[in-house]
Amino acid sequence: MVDAGFPLPTPQYEITTLDGRLLYVLDLAWPEVRVGLEYDGYEAHEDRATYDAERDRRMADRGWITVRVRKDAFADPAVILEQLREAFRRRGRDVELRQPPTRLRDRRTRRPGQQTR
Predict the structure, then answer these.
(1) What is the pTM (predicted TM-score) of this model?
(2) Other CB atoms closer than 10 Å to residue 106's CB: what's the count?
(3) Are 79 and 109 in contact (CB under 8 A)?
(4) Which intervals of the chain are annotated as region Disordered (predicted)?
(5) C-beta of residue 108 within 8 angstroms of C-beta of residue 15
(6) Quick one: 63 exposed, middle or buried, by C-beta within 10 A (0-12, 13-18, 19+)?
(7) Who is most buried in 43, 44, 63, 100, counting CB within 10 A?
(8) Confidence tier at 101 by pLDDT (50, 70, 90)
(9) pLDDT reported for residue 18
(10) In angstroms, rounded to a whole number, what is the distance separating the alpha carbons of residues 21 and 42?
(11) Chain segment 20-71, per-residue pLDDT in tens
């Protein structure tokens, strides 16, 4: 995401009540614009759609936009980046996307100096 032009996110960002009680932990967050990204891995989120929708509603009540990403979405990161860009735009922060690797996997397996296809 950073390579695509987004600011560095905060991992495992804690959302707490005013008295400090932990409510939620976002996988990635940009607290300055109140945008969070949640990775819904198959094992952890199977059969949790209702719970996740309620959690997203409660986060929205606290002023947060939650972008949800399922494992299969990583096959085309452009979709994720566009959803994230729209969330930032709704917060008045336009992010100019740079050209990320075609697939996230390409970046992880590339050797230094090796070109992507």
Answers:
(1) 0.76
(2) 14
(3) no
(4) 92-117
(5) no
(6) exposed
(7) 100
(8) low
(9) 92
(10) 28
(11) 999 999 999 999 999 999 988 765 555 677 888 899 999 999 999 999 998 7
| % the chain with pLDDT above 90 | 55
For residue 3, give Cα distances in angstroms to 25, 40, 73, 107.
Answer: 24, 22, 18, 10
For the chain, give the mean pLDDT. Answer: 84
Contact criterion met (CB below 8 Å) for 67 and 84: yes
* DSSP states along 46-111: TT-HHHHHHHHHHHHHTT-EEEEEEGGGGGSHHHHHHHHHHHHHHTT---------SSHHHHHHPP
Q: Are 3 and 100 in contact (CB under 8 A)?
A: yes
C-alpha span between 39 and 95 (Å, rounded): 21
CA dihedral 2, 96, 79, 72 (to 10 degrees): -10
